[in-house]
Amino acid sequence: MIRCKNCFASFVTNRLRLQRVFQLRQLCTSNEKSEEQKESEQIKREKSHEQFMKQALILKGSFEYVATKDKGNYLEMIKIFENKDVHRRNHVEFIYAALKNMEEFNVHKDLQVYKALIDVMPKGKFIPQNLFQAEFMHYPKQQQCMIDLLEQMEDNGVMPDYEMEDMLVNIFGRRGHPVRKFWRMMYWMPKFKNLSPWVVPNPPPQDAFELAQLAVERMCSVDVESVINIYNTEDVEDSVDHTWIVSGQSPEQKELLTRHPIKSAVYIEGPFLIWLRDKSINYFILRGDLPSNRQPVYDEDEYDDVSHIDVPLFGFGKPKKNKLIVKPSIHEQSDGIIYAVCCTGMSTKDSLLSWIRLLEKDGNPTIKDLAILFKFKSPADKELVTT
Question: Which of 10, 83, 164, 324 is the most buried (most CB within 10 A)?
Answer without folding.
Answer: 164
